[in-house]
Design goal:
Layout: E1 11-12, H1 19-26, E2 42-43, E3 59-60, H2 63-69, E4 78-81, E5 86-91, E6 97-102, H3 111-121, E7 132-138, E8 141-147, H4 155-158, H5 161-164, H6 169-189, E9 193-195, E10 204-206, E11 212-214, E12 221-223, E13 229-230, E14 234-235
Length: 239
């Protein structure tokens, strides 16, 4: 008898592999090899993420505020470079530290991915997802304003010989469990069922206590609450 998928299941037909996830999990010493297919690397041709954020309940920052916070986007404040463009550390007038993710005009990701990330992350609240504080859209300038994560990304620990030694077994286990909780929330417990589609070590950020938070939802795709299967055709993400 053919197996009938449960309504609680979420199946996505994709191509590719789990190289990025494999990297995250294999940084735990002694973890056995894992081989499988990725559920995060393709995009449906019918995706329609919209072009506006007018209907979102999200704080809008003006450009002068962000310019001042980042010291006019100085190189000293630059803390990374993503698919969207450079990321800067900033400090608001009330002393709050922020991370400013800018959309570069030469970025291989575009306005659609920017709007997609705003719409998704604004609706999500979980301790293992990076918190979106607001955005700045002024003319050609588009920026996402996030909480600042003092320990940077997970890959900066995994691929650094000195920093990797700072992660003892309990901390590594804590990080992996946090990532798993974040994914469980996205797949089952959030108002939207979400497939991240670009989960990798550089998209997992660590706070001052080395607690992980999943970031970068530009490639994510949503599913209906009762939807368990989706067809995909175009490759996206990192491979």
């Amino acid at each position: 008898m053919a197996h009938v998928p449960s309504q609680q299941q979420l199946v996505v037909r994709t191509t590719g592999n789990l190289n990025s996830l494999h990297t995250i999990y294999n940084f735990i010493e002694g973890l056995p090899p894992f081989v499988g297919k990725s559920d995060t690397l393709t995009e449906d041709n019918n995706d329609n993420n919209g072009k506006h954020v007018d209907d979102l309940e999200i704080q809008m920052f003006d450009l002068p505020t962000i310019t001042t916070a980042t010291n006019n986007f100085s190189m000293e404040n630059k803390i990374g470079e993503g698919g969207f463009g450079p990321v800067y550390k900033g400090i608001l007038t009330d002393g709050q530290e922020i991370a400013v993710k800018t959309l570069s005009r030469s970025s291989w990701q575009g306005a659609t991915e920017f709007i997609n990330e705003v719409k998704l992350i604004a609706k999500l609240q979980h301790r293992n997802l990076v918190k979106l504080l607001g955005c700045c859209i002024q003319g050609q300038e588009k920026m996402l304003i996030y909480e600042y994560m003092s320990n940077g990304s997970l890959d900066s620990f995994i691929f650094d010989n000195k920093k990797s030694k700072l992660l003892e077994w309990p901390q590594r286990f804590h990080i992996v469990c946090g990532i798993a909780r974040g994914l469980m929330y996205l797949r089952q417990d959030s108002r939207l069922r979400i497939i991240h589609r670009d989960l990798k070590a550089s998209n997992v950020l660590l706070d001052e206590k080395l607690s992980p938070k999943i970031s970068d939802f530009g490639m994510a795709r949503t599913f209906g609450g009762d939807q368990y299967e989706g067809n995909t055709s175009r490759v996206v993400g990192t491979w």
